[in-house]
What we know:
Elements: H1 11-17, E1 24-27, E2 30-33, H2 38-57, H3 64-74
Antiparallel strand pairs: 1-2
Helix pairs in contact: 2-3
Amino acid sequence: MKTYTKQKLTFDQFLEECPEEGLYELVDGEIVEVRATRNHGDIANFILFGLNDEIRRLNLKVQNELCHELFLDWR
Length: 75
């Protein structure tokens, strides 16, 4: 019986092979997608709603789409 081990990526290989979309990290020589936990999402929503409240309170001329877009890019 033969066993095969997958060769671990170097950091330079990781930079070449890492997908452009999303967040990834190199863990033990493998590319692993970074996913936000529920707590991260909750904090991001808290910040987003807080910003929206301040925009309304200060009567700033900022579109909600802009805030939503910033939130999606940040996540």
